[in-house]
Amino acid sequence: MKQEAIQFDTVNINEQNDALLIIDQTQLPGKKEILSLNKLEDIWDAIYLLKVRGAPAIGVAAAIGIYLAAKKIETDNYSKFLSEFQEAKEYLASSRPTAVNLFWALDRMENVVLENEDTTVEAIKQKLLAEAIKIREEDIQVCRSIGEYGLSLIKDGDGILTHCNAGSLATVKYGTALAPIYVGLEQGMKFKVFADETRPLLQGARLTAYELVEHGVETTVICDNMAAQVMKNGWIDAIFVGCDRVAANGDAANKIGTSGVAIMAKHYNIPFYVCAPTSTIDPKIKHGDDIPIEERPGSEITEMWYKERMVHPDAKTYNPAFDVTDHELITAIITEFGVIKKPYVENFVKLFKRVNRE
Ligand code: MRU
Question: For 2-143, CATH number?
């Protein structure tokens, strides 16, 4: 059997089931440090500070985090347990607003508590552990499947552009946007990947380039403002990006700068694919304007990565962490159940009907 191309496990629970294990992504690529976190406040900080980041990885970390919090609730009384559980859930849910996987995973965990009122608190805790492990395992399978569908859209040797990091570091393993590249790699294929550096937090330069190069993929890092040039040069055959939340009409929120890439792709007639596990599709949100967009501190623009502040102290900053790509610009949305094309409203309804039947 061929060795799997991807070895990282970005998010895990330790053997004693009492700590969340994550790779501290704020230190990459300089240092690969595994953090072992047990306190809810530390897990909240890890999500807010992007030590663990990427929509699916945030969801898995939250599932393990809420289990660890539930395990510490000292009561046999169901109502008291539920109330403390929900308090911890609300707290974790306040860490980041855009990636719907955070809320999706926390809701799944809460349902375990709500559906088991008739059993003991101790048994509920065991069921919560099982659900957190299931969410983690599912993420690996879902990403692998996205990789297979994505691979069917490209060919050996293609030039691929990606924005931010939607690779193995953004999920448990494989990633979403980088999964087609890894699955292709396992089959002996090779791609030339162009990674936007992704200002202001440099997820492309620091994380995407790191994981691709570690897996032997030819990787070229470009500043965000060079994307049009590489497209014009004819070096890009397809664009793959991840996403944090897809609205019912197919509008997709992803790392700031993604919508600009999609607009350029249309100009240069390059297919623009959004890779989205169904857990990232939020049918309750009708269109992209209603997706909550996280705003982060201006210091990420003015000071971070620089030896000294690079911006006049009186200049204002605007630092939205995500933007929304209009569904019209998206060639297809690649899910674990297949490649979804326009019209997204109708095709998502069909997809969810099918998924709920299976
Ligand atoms: O702010 P980040 O680094 O969490 O943003 C991550 C992204 O925008 C990813 O593209 C998205 O979460 C998809 S990850 C498979």
Answer: 1.20.120.420
Read off the pLDDT of residues 111-147 as tens digits, 9 standing for 90 and up.
999 999 999 999 999 999 999 999 999 999 999 999 9
For the chain, which residues make up each domain, given as ranges?
2-143, 153-357
CB of 147 closer than 6 angstroms to any ligand 1 atom: no
**Calpha distance 286→249 (Å, rounded):** 6
Active site residue 244: yes
Candidate of 146, 203, 245 to mutate for ligand 1, largest count of ligand atoms within 8 Å of Cβ: 203
234: left (phi over 0), alpha (psi -120 to 50) or beta: left
Place of tokens 């949100």: 285
User: Is the minimum distance from the CB of 164 to ligand 1 under 6 angstroms?
Assistant: yes
Ligand 1, residue 275: give the atom nearest the CA.
Answer: 15
Q: Give the fold, CATH level 3, of 153-357.
A: Rossmann fold (3.40.50)
pTM: 0.96
Q: Kindly state if the Cβ of 143 falls inside 6 Å of ligand 1.
A: no
Whether cis (ω within 30° of 0) applies to the bond prior to 343 is: yes
Comparing C-alpha atoms, which of 282, 271, 191 is closest to residue 243?
A: 282
CA–centroid distance, residue 11 to ligand 1 (Å): 15
**Interval 185-234: pLDDT, tens:** 999 999 999 999 999 999 999 999 999 999 999 999 999 999 999 999 99
The answer, yes or no, to whether any atom of ligand 1 lies below 6 A from the CB of 61, is no
